[in-house]
Amino acid sequence: MEKEFLKHTSLITYSAENYQKNSFDTISEIILSNKTQTIEWLNTYGNKYTEIFKTIVSKNKLDDFLMKLFMNQEHSNKVILLDDLVFISTRVLITKSEVLDSEQMLFVVSSSYLWSIQEKEGDYFDWIRERLEGNKGIVRKKKTDYLLFLLLESIIDNYQETYQKYADLSADKLDSSNIKPTPEFTAAVEKRKQELFSFKKATLSLRDTIIKLEKIEIDNFDVKYFSELKEQTNNLISNIDFELQELESKINLIFSIQGHRLNEVMKTLTILSVIFIPLTFLAGIYGMNFENIPELKFKYGYFILLGIMVLVTIISVWYFKRKKWF
């Protein structure tokens, strides 16, 4: 288990002048301290190494409450301020596959180190690693508050890019001019709604975490960066809500089209019924088997009855036309 943990754990140490990427041979080499002049970013893929987490906490004399927090495999959104560090848990959407999934992400942040723990291997932070290695921008001049800001911003940017990609695809499939009351179209609308619900749930979760981060107070940790992230999440949520309203309108339009078509069919059947009911009535009278029906012996009775039927039909059609029923 220890070898597996070390294989999935890496450390980036940096300052304004220096950068170093490390791996470990033993757990004892992992040191998390606020007494160093450098910033340390420890990243672990996998949240199943609870015993090893507890060992690291104990060895580095971190807050004991972390041990209890690491025992839980599933966390709701949490931002917990401990002695000299902050424990953060949030649910992050995985957008690399066609089927949207989510993973638990944990952060242990202090003024000089940040420990990120991801449930599954792979992330969207490579551009941050490249900026650290190439000393691009101001990231190496800042502390862990700015690094945490970049990590959360990367998650939000990924949400926005993936949302826009899915929105462009659905715009072609679900264009208003192509609305058809078919099971396939309705299923496509419902699928898009479920995608949007997943995006909204994940974005709301992230926004709640950011709002909680804005309220913490810890030495050498500036929360001013997170107001921008809150604005980005609010904008994304607004876009999602707007598209959900559009989809709801399309569903209502589908029902309206179906109702209109049904009304047209019923109107046609009703008109035909009204025309043929008197004709059937006349035919029924003279189809009775009574011997004493004088009209049956009349020489032109058949032709007169046909004429009456034609006249009834003409009058009915004229009346319907006058009422603009068809």
From TrEMBL:
Record flagged with keyword Cell membrane: yes
Reaction it catalyzes: Mg(2+)(in) = Mg(2+)(out)
Compartment(s) where it occurs, according to its Swiss-Prot or TrEMBL record: Cell membrane
Pfam families from the UniProt entry: CorA
Broad class of where this protein is predominantly found: membrane
Molecular function terms, GO-annotated: cobalt ion binding; cobalt ion transmembrane transporter activity; magnesium ion binding; magnesium ion transmembrane transporter activity
CDD domains: TmCorA-like_1 (cd12828)
InterPro entries reported in the protein's UniProt record: CorA_cytoplasmic_dom, CorA_TM1_TM2, MgTranspt_CorA/ZnTranspt_ZntB
Keywords: Cell membrane, Ion transport, Magnesium, Membrane, Transmembrane, Transmembrane helix, Transport
Domain of life: Bacteria
UniProt entry tagged with the keyword Acetylation: no
Alphabetical list of Gene3D superfamilies matching this protein: CorA soluble domain-like, Magnesium transport protein CorA, transmembrane region
Topology relative to the membrane: Multi-pass membrane protein
GO cellular component, one term: plasma membrane
Transmembrane portions of the chain: 269-288, 300-320
Main function: Mediates influx of magnesium ions. Alternates between open and closed states. Activated by low cytoplasmic Mg(2+) levels. Inactive when cytoplasmic Mg(2+) levels are high.
Recorded family membership: Belongs to the CorA metal ion transporter (MIT) (TC 1.A.35) family.
UniProt protein name: Divalent cation transporter
Naturally occurring in which organism (per UniProt): Polaribacter aquimarinus
Highest classification ranks of the organism: Bacteria, Pseudomonadati, Bacteroidota, Flavobacteriia, Flavobacteriales
